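From the shared-data thread, chain only:
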Amino acid sequence: MKKDGSRVPFDIANILRGIQAACGKRPVPEDVKQRIADEVDEGIHRDFEHEVPSVEVGRRVAIALRNIDQVAYVRFASVYHNFQSVTEFQAEIIGLTEKPPTPPDHPSLFDDK
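Structure, as tokens:
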């Protein structure tokens, strides 16, 4: 379910396109991008029976990108959060420096919201 209330079929290809756009010209291998899309897809199918809010899909992609490539994360976050000013970019970047990404092999004790 989109932010505007419209409904579209869930499609992993849309997730992958968003990841690829965020990672444009970044040193993120294609297999890593595909793995992120696959993990988000699996998690969505595991955690939701019918409808899933698009913001939840975006949140999961953002968390994964944050741990892979900070520039790709900020690119994705700017669209996901609909940044309207440089100040919003600055706040996100400051947040990255104050709370660095979690290493992939580190167990999560709290939800990364």
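The two ends are 20 Å apart (CA to CA).
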